[in-house]
Amino acid sequence: MGRYVYMLVKALRLYLELDVLNEEMHFLEEHQAQHVQQLMRKPLKEQAKKSWLQRRVYEWDPHFRFPSRMIGTAVLALICLYIFVVTEFYIYQYVSRELKILEVNFEVLVASSNESEVLTSTVLHVKEFIDVMQGVWIFTTFAASLTSISYVFHILACYRKHMKRLWAGQKRFLPLESCQPSSSQSVAAIARYSGWQIAYLLWGYLIIHVVQCLFVTMIVYGFVLPIKHGHGLKMLKDLGIGILTAGIVIGLMMVQVVIAANFFLQPKISPEDKQKPLALNNRKAFHNFSYFLFFYNVVLGLGACLVRLFCSVILGAWLIARIDRTIMQKGYEVADLGFSTWVGMIFMDHYHTNPTLVCFCHILLTTERQQKRSNKYYCFSNPTEPRVSNRARTRWLLLYTLLNNSGLAALRKPKAESGSKDATQSYFA
């Protein structure tokens, strides 16, 4: 009840314009005014040297403040991530107890099966797999948690970077289809951003955890267990064959590039050019070169296609929690609903928190309120101020601007005046 009375009294005071000064003070934030002042200053010729942390990780900006929505989303995301990890750990403990019971049952089965070698070997492999998965799961839990936590702070850094680019009028970092989201989409996006960001982060943690678990398991079975069982030399031999095969493939690809640069391109037009022009030379030799390497390139393309698929799966799984960047191919970014939500949200914030626009609106409202408060005899309170018509002042400012910026004179379209008027007067009219 007390809270309601307080809100009612405050609304009445605002309606009666008793708290106008307080409202004016809070309309333009201090950091926004400082940001605009910084834009008006002349940039320094010599920039201060930045530390490694500022260049590689994060650089503090005293003139930027994150909105409460972003801070609240980050805090809630960390809390939900903590609850999710703890719940997953309890499930892991329950599954571990069940696997221990399964191991005991296997041992009893082996003891009562007249010592069958096949069954004994199978049971040993199962026990080894259970031990490996338990260790891998614990290790990847920490790795996936650290990755997800770093994503939370990285998203905040990307938010600041994207907002500054939009304030500067730069939209090239966005896909063409997303540069002008509709107003309704932006409003809906900012309403659902917090919930979607937390949901994407939780799904991303789970997917990253599973992917990391699979990769670490492959590493353990490919390198650790062979060395543990005394098969290290065989493992090194197989590894050497694989590295040699990959080296030959990569080497042949590099040889093709070197041959193309030295024999099938015309020389540089100017010695200062960084590379040769894209103009073929020795065309007959180039056709023979393409023919003899055709079948090799088919086999190489099969492997390159698998590498492309592998990299796409890894990057897609690794970046699924980050909705500040799309994981779709170019031209299909609109199908990424998470990225569309991010774009709509930053555009909504851009239109409502742009320091330059807010400062301009603050000046307009302040001037309007000052004019309303002044009496009708305001002109008599400033007898020293010269009376100049608006038309004369505008012409003088136009002339002064054109004299100091000669390049604008060529871009200005003169008015079509009668022949009796002076050309100069017509030009500056």
UniProtKB/TrEMBL annotation:
<dbReference type="GO" id="GO:0005886">
    <property type="term" value="C:plasma membrane"/>
</dbReference>
<feature type="transmembrane region" description="Helical">
    <location>
        <begin position="239"/>
        <end position="265"/>
    </location>
</feature>
<feature type="transmembrane region" description="Helical">
    <location>
        <begin position="70"/>
        <end position="92"/>
    </location>
</feature>
<keyword id="KW-0472">Membrane</keyword>
<keyword id="KW-0813">Transport</keyword>
<keyword id="KW-1003">Cell membrane</keyword>
<protein>
    <submittedName>
        <fullName>Uncharacterized protein</fullName>
    </submittedName>
</protein>
<keyword id="KW-1133">Transmembrane helix</keyword>
<feature type="transmembrane region" description="Helical">
    <location>
        <begin position="294"/>
        <end position="320"/>
    </location>
</feature>
<dbReference type="GO" id="GO:0071939">
    <property type="term" value="P:vitamin A import into cell"/>
</dbReference>
<dbReference type="GO" id="GO:0034632">
    <property type="term" value="F:retinol transmembrane transporter activity"/>
</dbReference>
<feature type="transmembrane region" description="Helical">
    <location>
        <begin position="202"/>
        <end position="227"/>
    </location>
</feature>
<dbReference type="GO" id="GO:0038023">
    <property type="term" value="F:signaling receptor activity"/>
</dbReference>
<dbReference type="Pfam" id="PF14752">
    <property type="entry name" value="RBP_receptor"/>
</dbReference>
<keyword id="KW-0812">Transmembrane</keyword>
<feature type="transmembrane region" description="Helical">
    <location>
        <begin position="136"/>
        <end position="157"/>
    </location>
</feature>
<dbReference type="InterPro" id="IPR026612">
    <property type="entry name" value="STRA6-like"/>
</dbReference>
<keyword id="KW-0675">Receptor</keyword>
